[in-house]
Specification:
two-stranded antiparallel ribbon; elongated; 8-stranded mixed sheet; 59% helix; single chain; 22 helices; alpha/beta
């Protein structure tokens, strides 16, 4: 796992210049180096409300995110600080501090809405920071939440059934925390003490009435209830009554701050460290630093093009990039492991195929671990093709190594024989018998040489074939043999040659069978791991839908209990839509996966069955190697 790049201070992630957003490539490069899952905490709120102070506390620093003491907004755009997570091993905490909303100097506040939307899209915990109390004015100032339906899309195309796209926001929106600063009220309701969370839930209850004022007041309340199923509230006392201290709070020693504020801040940080979740997309896709960087670039590019950021499109873009990298990672793993484990030349083809199948299995597992949303298994099919090519290369290398090693050994063993032939040693009466004995000894010695490899027999056969004319010449010139004995010797030589050719054919047939079995096993391994992946993805998809439906049912029940029967009934279309999707997904699950596997098997079989390069040309020219001047 890659270590987290050391960041001694925050860096601007998204610049906001001249009403245009721009991604800082230096910040993206930092994210690219983070392979760990990320917990992303973003804070938004009106300018000059102390957002940056809370983020510095989470970073464990007094200084970092810029603090200011004037009425001007200090933070511009979105700033990022990546630190090792203090309580989750092998996780990185990414803190995002955003430009203050409602800065009067900006004029056009459109980018406020985009920064708010980006904070929602990028974070796993979204902190809204405000001053005073959660009252009508505070909720009015949170009008940005009502604009999310216009600024974010879950799907790339509208639903034919008319169900709002925002129905699925709850499936990928972050947890929501409302941080209320300079809180001076007692946490009481109807004379009874209440918790901070109860204070928030009471504040977002709908206001009765059908008039326009009630409808407008209820809009942010409904959005908070509908979009953010996990809500939390923290209230903070004023840090100090001394204005001079507040003006330079980054330099204030801890003991100079109000004790209640200190305790509340520690409580807030502890909650974030313990409960803030890993950033996850739909269907359980875990986001690491590299993926977060891709999401930032995708969303900002979309905004600058004039379009609306869409989660589905962003995930598709991310999947293309990630799956390409996963495919390369898997292919590299195969090559590395084959190079380490395969000792060439192998004694048999099966020995090499066994190593190949073990390495291929691991490579597929590497791909499955890092890929997601591989539509029509395009990248897995490319991986199959790449591994097939690499396997063929290893088979060729194995054959080449076998030919070279076998020839070297045979050349050494036959050196004396060749010298004797050149000296005419065998062109005397009785020379044929002596030649055959020497030749047989070479064959016996050659058979004792270990690990000659898959081409050992073929090399020997080509050597014997190259000697056939010389052998026949020695036979015919041997005056110690009768013509009948010579005829018998010729027939015996033909029979032995035919038997050796038959043995080679048997070996080739056996190797073809082994290749076919390896191909079948490759197909089954790819199918098996794909099936497991598809089933897991389907389970995550259904779990997401069930979680969305569970939240919708709770919202409907709350509305009913609060006396909003009509609004409760208006949610029936959404809930029925979700129920229908869950039913179809669970009932059609097996058949859909089976269809995908069957289609995949046909395409993979076509790839695996394509003709492979063979080493025949290497062996065919061997006879020339054995000829001596």
């Amino acid at each position: 796992m890659a270590s987290v790049p050391t960041m001694t201070a925050p860096i601007c992630l998204v610049e906001n210049q001249n009403q245009r957003l721009k991604v800082n490539q230096q910040a993206v490069e930092i994210l690219d180096k983070i392979a760990q899952p990320v917990v992303v905490v973003a804070i938004v709120g009106l300018y000059r409300t102390g957002k940056s102070y809370l983020m510095n506390c989470l970073a464990g620093q007094n200084n970092g995110f810029p603090l200011g003491s004037t009425v001007q907004s200090e933070t511009k755009g979105i700033w990022m600080w990546c630190i090792p997570h203090p309580s989750k091993p092998n996780h990185t905490l990414v803190l995002l501090d955003t430009e203050g909303l409602g800065d009067v100097e900006k004029g056009d506040t459109k980018n406020d809405s985009w920064i708010f939307a980006l904070a929602v899209l990028l974070s796993s915990t979204f902190v809204y920071n405000s001053m005073g109390t959660i009252n009508h004015q505070a909720l009015e100032q949170l009008h940005y939440v009502t604009e999310l339906t216009e600024l974010i899309r879950a799907k790339s195309s509208p639903r034919p059934d008319g169900v709002e796209d925002s129905t699925e926001f709850v499936g990928f929106f972050p947890d929501f925390i409302w941080a209320v600063r300079d809180f001076t009220l007692e946490l009481k309701l109807n004379g009874h003490l209440i918790t901070e969370d109860e204070y928030l839930e009471n504040a977002v209850k709908l206001i009765p009435g059908k008039n326009l004022k009630a409808q407008l007041s209820n809009q942010p309340r409904e959005c908070i209830r509908n979009f953010f199923p996990n809500r939390k509230c923290f209230v903070f006392d004023r840090p100090s009554s001394d204005k001079n201290l507040l003006a330079h709070i980054e330099d204030v020693r801890e003991y100079e701050l109000d004790p209640n504020f200190q305790e509340q801040t520690k409580k807030f940080c502890s909650y974030i460290f313990t409960n803030a979740k890993t950033k996850t997309l739909r269907e359980g896709i875990i986001v690491n630093g590299n993926r977060l960087g891709t999401l930032v670039e995708t969303y900002v590019d979309t905004i600058n093009s004039g379009a609306v950021p869409c989660l589905e499109n962003a995930v598709t873009t991310l999947a293309q990039r990630e799956n390409s990298a996963a495919m390369q990672k898997a292919a590299d793993h195969y090559s590395e492991q084959m190079a380490q484990r395969a000792r060439l030349p192998t004694d048999t083809l099966q020995e090499l195929l066994d190593v190949h199948m073990a390495c291929e299995k691991e490579a597929i597992a590497v791909f499955m671990e890092h890929c997601f949303k591989d539509e029509n298994q395009e990248f897995q099919k490319m991986l199959v093709e790449i591994i097939k090519k690499k396997k063929e290369d290893f088979l060729l290398q194995n054959e080449e190594a076998s030919v070279k090693y076998s020839w070297d050994k045979l050349n050494h063993l036959s050196k004396a024989l060749m010298e004797s032939i050149s000296a005419g040693t065998f062109f005397v009466p009785g020379g044929y018998k002596l030649y055959i004995e020497r030749k047989k000894k070479i064959e016996r010695d050659y058979s004792q040489v270990p690990r000659k490899g898959v081409k050992a027999n073929e090399v020997l056969q080509r050597f014997l074939q190259s000697q056939a004319p010389i052998e026949n010449s020695i036979l015919q010139s041997d005056k110690a043999l009768t013509n009948a004995e010579k005829a018998i010797a010729v027939e015996r030589a033909k029979k032995e040659a035919a038997e050796k050719e038959l043995e080679l054919l048997r070996q080739k047939h056996m190797e073809q069978q082994q290749q076919k079995e390896a191909q079948d096993r490759s197909l089954e391994e790819n199918k098996g791991q794909l099936k497991e992946k598809l089933e897991k993805e389907r389970e995550n998809y259904i779990r997401d839908l069930e979680r969305i439906m569970e939240h919708k049912l709770k919202v409907r029940e709350d509305l009913l209990n609060e006396g909003f029967r009509k609004k409760s009934e208006e949610m029936d279309a959404e809930i029925n839509y979700l129920k229908n999707i869950v039913y179809k997904s669970t009932s059609d699950n097996t058949s859909l996966i089976s269809q995908a596997l069957d289609k995949f098997a046909i395409e993979i079989t076509s790839i695996l069955s394509a003709p492979a390069k063979l080493l025949g040309h290497i062996v065919k020219g061997l006879s020339s190697l054995f000829k001596k001047d």
